[in-house]
Amino acid sequence: MNAEHPSSDSLSPALVSELVAMAWCDKTSFDDIELETGFSERQTIRLMRRHLKASSFKLWRKRVSGRVAKHRHLCS
After folding, report:
1. Which end of the chain, N or C, is surrounded by fewer C-beta atoms within 10 Å?
2. DSSP string, 8-39
3. Using CA atoms, how far apart are residues 41 and 17, in angstroms rounded to an integer?
4. Would you put residue 66 in left (φ > 0), alpha (ψ -120 to 50) or beta?
């Protein structure tokens, strides 16, 4: 994580919950997450890996990988 953000361990449970919900939402792109929270796609993936069960993380990654709605640059 960059210097602007503490490690995901020191985030409040409310912020972690909000980030996880945004990441699961099909209508919220990684760009939107970064604009709203400052967390890049890479940081969001790290947070999800750390705070979800392994099976949930794998399901989420399979779901969002290549999904146009999650990657604004694919929408063009």
Report:
1. C
2. GGGS-HHHHHHHHHHHH-TT--HHHHHHHH--
3. 16
4. left
Taking a C-beta distance cutoff of 8 angstroms, is the pair 23, 60 a contact? yes
* 67: three-class secondary structure by DSSP: coil
Give pTM, 2 decimals.
0.78
**Residue of 55, 48, 54, 2 lying closest to 22 (CA atoms):** 48
What are the structure tokens assigned to 76, written together? 């063009």
pLDDT of residue 22: 96
Q: How many CB atoms lie within 10 A of CB 29?
A: 22
Give how far Cα 56 sits from Cα of 8, 31, 53, 61, Å.
18, 22, 5, 9
Q: Cα separation of 48 and 20, whole Å?
A: 7
